[in-house]
User: What shape does this take?
Amino acid sequence: MNEAPKHKPNCEGQEPTIFDFPEFAPMAIDICVGCKVRDWCLRQVDPAKNFYDGVAGGHAWHDGRVQRRWSDPDTDPIAQAYLGTRPKRRGPIPINSPKVRDFMVGKIAWNRLTIAERQEAVHRMAKQGVPQELAVNATKLPAIQVAGIYKNTTIKRTEGNR
Ligand code: SF4
Assistant: This one.
């Protein structure tokens, strides 16, 4: 993870939110056209495993699935490689990583974590009642993805903490 791309990504310098929201998907996919690091991009995101929401590697993904409304993975061997077996249940990623623990107490920065570990950190933040915007800022995951994790996390808070 965290390997450097061998070429400049087409999206470098673009507004990142274009890649987060479905209404901008066609625009983001256009930016991906001809990008020389699509394979690298999909290796970083690994959409199916990470339930990715947003545009990556020239396709729009929701919950780790390609949105065929905008692109067809059947004609794209690069995207095919990242459409592998999905875990059956959505929920906390049972990685229990010591890196996530270190991140949660501020010992290491977000860029030392894999995407799965960042998602696990968001899940823990949701459980702890950390405001969603803080989780987005801290993990640098797309806001839509963080919102999805918050929605799918059972927040065990007492009445007094609400
Ligand atoms: S393929 Fe990935 S790195 Fe390239 S422009 Fe699209 S989102 Fe950016």
